[in-house]
Amino acid sequence: MRNAALARRAEELAAQGAAYVTATVVRAQRPTSARAGNVALITSDGTIQGFVGGTCTEHSVRLFAWTAMQTGEPVLVRVLPEAVEDDDPRKNDDGAVNVVNPCLSGGAIELFLEPTLPIPRVTVVGSKPIAAQIERLGSEFDLDVVAVGDEAASVREGDLAIVIAAHGKGELEALKAGIVAKLPYIGLVASPKRGAALLEELRADGVSEQDLARVKCPAGINIGARTAPEVALTVLAEIIQTRYSDAYTAPIRAPNDQVAPTFAIDPICGMTVPAEPGALQLEHAGETVYFCAPGCKKTYETQRLSGPPPSSPDAPAPTGMMPTDDIASTPSPGTATTAVDPICGMTVLATDDTPQLEHEGATVYFCRDECKATFQREQHAVGAA
User: Fold this and answer.
1) If you average pLDDT over residues 9-32, what whole number do you get?
2) How many angstroms separate the CA atoms of 285 and 287, rounded?
3) C-alpha dihedral, 340 to 341 to 345 to 347, nearest 10°
4) CA torsion 104→109→112→117, rounded to 10°?
5) If residue 324 lies in a helix (H) or strand (E), which one and from where to where?
6) To 10 degrees, the CA torsion angle through 136, 244, 212, 180?
7) What pTM was computed for the model?
8) Helix axes 171-180, 192-204, angle to 10 degrees
């Protein structure tokens, strides 16, 4: 359960409009250090407050917490050792993902990651009854309604909508603000005749037809509404429809304007780790190489730094950093986020930066080049036979 400190931190993050994930240990098999019920908060800058496991577990938690924030969907992460008798580490179910983690000493841990994203922000321009009703009803639908009355519209990147119900006051300026900010929903409460006249003025000012087509006028779903509360309900229904469409993605803001994390692959074990200043790392061949634990770093120093120079055809390819966009482009954490190395059984990210090859019409991913070379030799031997 979350303690008082974590509860206060969650309230602070919500007040800042920052995204975060609540990670809860739902099952822990010895000798893991975490226990069922342990809770931590993970923000989009990769910071973990609380305890849900050791260093190796934290790597997986950071990665899939970021993915959960990208998709907005909770996910069950099973962090498993290399060999588990009663479970198949290659199996990924809807809403769950299995991660083979060689750093664990025979134990296993299951964590439920639940993202909390900023409440969608809606600006309402106008002081007439319909604007007042939208402001009154909006909070019932988990919307952050900012009513500016007859003042200038206040919009920002990541807002969901702007509704102009000003009946002649500042309508053009508010429409332009919504168009410039590329808000997913721009609603104008006006008659079709008045709306057409306003759009014509915008057209004369050089606003493109594509942008003009984004303005909903009259705003709201047509249900024959007559009263101010009924019209407000139709507008909110249209906003909610936009909220759950592909047109809107909740902004993932880090607390204190910190940057989003970048990830790299440990060249020894293949684990995905945050590429941050405090991570284990060293410089090699002009690049920064990151590691999950001191053991992997020591192995790299022993095997790689004493091996052939980077220009040699036998040298391993340098490990590059993976921008978070590559991870975020995956549709869901339980489908194409990971793949299993067929040689060592390691779970790896299925990205363009991961060692791979095409085999029998499918892309096969590997934790490192050595496993890829072993796979090629085995397939060559099978073909020769």
Assistant:
1) 85
2) 6
3) -50
4) -20
5) helix 324-328
6) 80
7) 0.58
8) 60
